[in-house]
Specification:
CATH topology of the largest domain: FAD/NAD(P)-binding domain
Helix content: 25-40%
Shape: globular
Distance between the termini: 72 Å
Structural class: alpha/beta
CATH superfamily of the largest domain: FAD/NAD(P)-binding domain
Number of domains: 2
CATH class of the largest domain: Alpha Beta
Largest sheet: 8 strands, mixed
Number of helices: 22
Number of strands: 20
CATH architecture of the largest domain: 3-Layer(bba) Sandwich
């Protein structure tokens, strides 16, 4: 195969990718983001969606299970506990309603980038038909409330309450849960169901607290200031100069909406995102009503197979995600490479070709050549989460939109009382919007914001000081009756709710069996935990090499080559992991877990 055959020089591309990565590497890695406490706490803890001044009396309560978090992971945990006959549980949620990420992320244009027929869980159980192939935030938020009503979870949930500390009480043989409302909850079991997007992430730009204009994080959008709602109508920006800092999945959706209303918009970009076509469409009701029982699991499994690098005979989802998976997966049949080296070469060339296609789309869309060049991403397609939007690139053709590329400068230099300094230039603005996402793979303590102490006062963060120590990603020795839903030593899925649901099913089974067997506690044996950690470490070589070559981002812990949360995943994929857990449950032996029986 020659350069003429493929249309690009692979050696030149590798060198370009390397240079673009190197100029963005920072010595502080993930530590570049701020711990939002003290004067910055409002960025993470203010709730613009409830009336201020809420108070209530503290609650003292004993229950079987406390679920920390009321997003999809929390409500799925509740639904699956009910299937196991566990009804005595509480959900504790910081927001004023269910929804989690979709409660907080009500910025204009907010939309799920995964097929709604896969993403929205329990569609068959609720008999619900999504309005469109890709659901917007209003529908997702309303649907999460619908799930809460269906399973009668509102009666079991404490809203507007932040958990501060969780600790094991040896005398009570129960967990204690302390909150910002002075509550003392005493559950037998705890499920940490805070998902992967729990706490907002704020870049550590000097001077943030000195800005005299208005500012907020996208997860705390201030419609009192901008006017309008998630669909637009932001007339309050008509005379405002706005800065959006960040160009990841959130900004891709925010920028076109703000551009429509702001007097002028400055978009500060450190690393450009890939931007594929969205091609949203209303749901075909006739098609939806023709689906047979079990269709959602089949569809989810099909998506997982594509994302795991398989090539199913059918593409049930048929979107830009599966187009990427098809483009970068190894061919089947007689054309399939016979060695790892051949496979890696074919996949790399296919990846290069897909990225060339995405860069050509920028040339075809953006009129100003310098802006088009700055918007081009130079890295492998899965180095950063791909984005899909039909309005983002055209927004840069508007005369009131300016792209400020700060990649070579490692980001924005500082915030002044009146604006943003980048590349030595001060841009005076009235509003700064931080579109910087969530703490996904940063320090675990920072990400959760909850102190967790097991037996003998051992902090979970100390127990995991040299890396996570779990059995199947769900439980840790020394933390009896404690379970975790999220990104850990299990299978990561791009369709988060599939991952959460499978985890919730497994955890609910463990708790149900522990109760049915009249045991007081359950936790991994040291041998089983060590063996699983060895399995995970043995799977990391290929992924580690790939991510080390990537531009900095949350997938590789901002370029920190010593540690990445995603390197702790079960890399064979969600389907393999799900089968492994189903087989584990089918034996009924609770293998690897130690149960202390009640006297």
């Amino acid at each position: 195969m020659t350069i003429d055959d493929i249309g690009f020089d692979p050696d030149e591309l590798r060198d370009r990718y390397r240079r673009e990565r190197d100029k963005r590497l920072r010595t502080d890695g993930a530590n570049q983001y701020l711990d939002m406490s003290g004067d910055l706490a409002h960025f993470a803890e203010d709730d613009p969606y409830v009336a201020p001044g809420f108070t209530r009396d503290p609650i003292t309560d004993e229950c079987d299970v406390a679920i920390i978090g009321g997003g999809f992971s929390g409500i799925l945990a509740g639904a699956r506990l009910l299937e196991q006959g566990i009804t005595d549980f509480r959900i504790v949620e910081a927001g004023g309603d269910f929804g989690g990420t979709w409660y907080w992320n009500r910025y204009p244009g907010a939309q799920c980038d995964t097929d709604a027929y896969c993403y929205l869980p329990l569609l068959e159980e609720l008999g619900y038909m999504p309005k469109e192939k890709y659901a917007y935030v209003d529908e997702i938020f309303d649907y999460s409330r619908r799930v809460g009503e269906h399973f009668r979870l509102y009666d079991k949930t404490i809203f507007q309450t932040r958990v501060r500390r969780v600790w094991w009480d040896d005398d009570l043989q129960r967990w204690r849960v302390a909150t910002n409302r002075g509550d003392d909850l005493r559950p037998r079991f705890v499920i940490m169901a805070m998902g992967t997007t729990t706490r907002p992430k704020l870049p550590g730009i000097p001077g943030i607290e000195e800005f005299q204009g208005h500012s907020f994080h996208t997860s705390r959008w201030d419609y009192d200031y901008t006017g309008g709602d998630t669909n637009g109508g932001m007339t309050g920006l008509a005379d405002k100069r706005v800065a959006v800092i960040g160009t990841g999945a959130t900004a891709i959706q925010v920028v076109p909406r703000v551009a429509e209303y702001a007097q002028h918009l400055y978009v500060f970009q450190r690393t450009p995102s890939t931007v594929g076509l969205r091609r949203n469409a209303p749901t075909d009701e006739k098609w939806f009503r023709s689906l047979q029982p079990g269709w959602q699991k089949e569809r989810r499994d099909n998506f997982a197979a594509w994302s795991d690098g398989k090539r199913p005979e059918q593409d049930l989802v048929d979107d830009s995600w599966t187009d990427i998976f098809r483009a970068i997966s190894s061919p089947k049949g007689a054309d399939r490479p016979t060695t790892r080296e051949e496979r890696d070469r074919v996949v790399e060339l296919s990846d290069f070709a897909k990225m060339e296609e995405l860069r050509r789309r920028i040339d075809d869309t953006v009129e100003d050549r310098a802006t088009a060049e700055a918007l081009k991403p130079w890295y492998r397609v899965m180095c950063k989460r791909p984005t899909f939007n039909d309005e983002y690139l055209p927004a840069f053709n508007r005369p009131n939109v300016t792209l400020v590329d700060v990649g070579a400068a490692h980001g924005v230099e500082r915030i002044t009382p009146h604006g943003v300094v980048a590349n030595g230039v001060e841009y005076e603005v009235d509003l700064i919007v931080y579109a910087s996402g969530f703490q996904i793979t940063s320090d675990f303590r920072l990400r959760l914001g909850v102190e967790i102490d097991g037996r003998d006062g051992l902090s979970l963060y100390d127990a995991w000081g040299k890396g996570q120590q779990t059995l199947h990603g769900f439980m840790t020795r020394g933390f009896p009756n404690w379970c975790y839903i999220g990104v850990s030593q299990n299978a990561f899925s791009l369709n988060m709710t599939s991952m959460f649901d499978e985890q919730a099913k497994h955890i609910a089974y463990i708790i149900g069996e522990t109760v049915r067997r009249n045991a007081s506690t359950v936790e991994p044996s040291q041998e089983a935990q060590d063996a699983w950690v060895d399995v995970i470490r043995g799977l990391q070589t290929t992924g580690s090499s790939f991510l080390a070559d990537c531009t900095p981002g949350y997938y590789n812990n901002e370029g920190d080559r010593t540690e990445s949360q995603f390197l702790g995943a079960y890399t064979p994929g969600l389907l393999r992991f799900t089968r492994l857990m189903e087989e584990w449950r089918s034996t009924g032996r609770m293998e690897g877990l130690e149960l202390s029986l009640d006297e």
